[in-house]
Specification:
Blueprint lengths: L14 H13 L9 H13 L9 E8 L14 H12 L3 H9 L2 E8 L10 E3 L17 H20 L4 E7 L3 H13 L15 H17 L7 H8 L2 H16 L2 E4 L2 H13 L7 E3 L6 H9 L16 H19 L3 H4 L7
Parallel strand pairs: 1-2, 1-4, 2-3, 4-5, 5-6
Helix pairs in contact: 1-2, 2-12, 4-12, 5-9, 6-7, 6-8, 6-10, 9-10, 10-11
Length: 351
Amino acid sequence: MTDTWWLNPCKAIDAQAHAQALARQQQLTKPAGSLGQLDAVAVQLAGLQGQVKPSLDHLWIAIFAGDHGVVAEGVSAFPQEVTGQMLRNFVTGGAAISVLARQLDAQLEVIDLGTVTPSLNLPGVRHLNIGAGTANFVNGPAMTEAQGRLALEAGRDSVRRAVAGGAQLFIGGEMGIGNTTAASALACALLDCRVSDLTGPGTGLNAQGVSHKVAVIERALALHITQRGDALQALFNLGGFEIAALVGAYLACAQEGVVVLVDGFICTVAALVATRLNPACREWLLFGHRGAEPGHRHVLESLNAEPLLELSLRLGEGSGAALAVPLLRLACALHGQMATFAEAAVADRPA
């Protein structure tokens, strides 16, 4: 297995479009920079899309799902069957991300990488069956290298479908009972932080439950300590199928030239892994929100990321990123449709 496609070069930013968009910003009928982060993100999008007036009309949302063997350690407030049940909810339109996708006129794709629920065959879901969830990573690696590569490729394949569909913005979401435990363990392995700083209640653990979760992660990190600095091996040892798919998707987006809007804690940990594997992908990542999970703030800071929203969200599914899409669309509209001082016959500030 020698193919390391994730190391391929990322698409270069269009410096000319970026410079022209920045110049346009200086001419709009408002004080320079007065719309703060919205001004900055519009210019950033111009450079990424290669057009002075960027747009985000075509949105692709991919939900990656997988189960986690570490749930056997009692780290979740919800039973593992919920993963499979939520897959049905996604495609029948009842989940939060399903509602948001309809409101945003987004293409929604649901991908089951591997769950413990036997014989799932849901219309509208891509069932890849990489495994019946990951293995319990306190006893050994969460996945084999072959499984990890398949998960990475699943993310890349989703992006290729998004590109074929004309997507201008990609949102990856996740579903998998136990995946905040996997994300916290993976972040700790890469950032060398205290486990207690990066571990929270997930779907609703009490203080005792969080303490137990910390102890489980500490056991796993001790087992896999010799490979903690190796991002790819850490992903295979401690991650989930859906986290690996997100990593593959983010890297493929950067290579294909599709802007990414990163969701919450788990997705941000996947973004951290992606940047460790191929640092140039960082330029293609925008961040939707800062969530309630305590580790999210630490991981965002490690990526020097300033998210668009802070609403104490902790749902996942790509929901926080989806909620930020209207802001991005409005940023593009303001940048593209406001009059310049000359067009409006408004006196510019003195030189």
